[in-house]
Amino acid sequence: MADASKDDATRKRILDHMNADHQDSLSRYLEHYSGLSSWAARDAKATDISLSQLSVDANGKTHRIPLDPPMQSLRDARERMVKMDEASLKGLSRSDITVTEYDLPRGFHLVVFSAVIVTLLTFYERSNFLPGSWLHDNLLRNLPGFARFAYAIQPLVFYGILAIHTVEATVMATSKLIKHSVPIFGGLWWKWVASTWIDGVCSFQRFNAIVERERREKEKQKH
Q1: Angle at 186 between CA 115 and CA 220, to 5 degrees
Q2: Are 49 and 11 in contact (CB under 8 A)?
Q3: Extended strands (E) in 40-190
Q4: S-S: 103 plus which of 2, 19, 89, 206, CB 3.0-4.6 Å?
Q5: Phi/psi of residue 64, nearest 5 degrees
Q6: Counting beta carbons within 10 angstroms of the beta carbon of residue 58, is it exposed (0 to 12), middle (13 to 18) or buried (19 or more)?
Q7: How far apart are CA 176 and CA 188, in angstroms?
Q8: DSSP labels, 159-185
C-alpha cells in the first residue's frame, strides 16, 4: 500500500512537471511517435504514465506512446523523457530551442512596420491618386507630378509588397516557427506570421534574437 501511494505521488509529480514545463516536448512526442501533424498535436497534455507507456491527450483524443523498453521504475522517467525528446527533435529536424514569446517592433523596426502599413493603405487602389479622393485633394493637390507617378506605379508597389511579404511570411511559418516548435495556428504563431507579413526581414531579426538569447541562457545552465 505504501509503495502504491509512493508511485501515485511520483506519477502525479511527473505529469504535473511535464504539463507545466514541457508541453512542447509532449507535442513533439505525438508528432514523432504517433505520427500526428503539428495541428493535431497542439495543446498536448500528459494524463498518465506507467512503466510501459505514456498517455497524452490532444484535441479530445488520448494517444498512448509505448515506452520501449519499459522502465524499471518511475524514477527513470526523467531520463527517459529527455531521451524521447532528443529522439523527437532529431526525427522532426527541430531545434532544441522553443520560442514561446513574441517581440513587438521597436525603434527602427517600428518605423518600418508603420511605413509599410501606411504604404499599403495609400496604394491599395489607384483612385487614391485621382482628383476627388481624400488623399489627392488634401495631401497631393499641390504635387500633381507625384500624384501621376504614384498612379502609374500603384499596381507594382501594392502587389509587389503583397507578393514579397507573403513569401516572407510563408518562410517564417514553414521554417522558423516549425523549427522552434511554435504551435501552428496558435496565438503566438499568428503574431509572428502577421508581423512578418508587415515588416518582413525585421521580424526575422527579432525572432533570431530571441533564439540566440535563449541559446545563451541554455549554455549558462550547463555550467
Answers
A1: 85
A2: yes
A3: 45-49, 53-58, 61-66
A4: 206
A5: -105, 120
A6: buried
A7: 13
A8: HHHHHHHHHHHHHIIIIIIHHTTPPTT
Expressed in angstroms, the distance from the first to the final Cα of the chain is 41
CA distance 86 to 81: 9
In whole angstroms, what is the distance from residue 77 CA to residue 145 CA? 72
* pLDDT at position 118: 96
Q: Nine-digit cell at 113? A: 512596420
d(CA 113, CA 20): 35
- Three-state DSSP state, 136: helix
pLDDT at residue 1, rounded to an integer = 45
Given the DSSP bridges, would you call strands 53-58 and 61-66 parallel, antiparallel or unpaired?
Answer: antiparallel
Q: Cα–Cα–Cα angle for 179, 184, 55, nearest 5°?
A: 90
Length reported for the chain = 223
pLDDT in tens, 28-56: 999 999 999 988 998 899 999 999 999 99
Q: Determine the number of helices (DSSP H) and then strands (DSSP E) in the chain.
A: 9, 3
Quote the strand ranges of the chain, DSSP E. Answer: 45-49, 53-58, 61-66
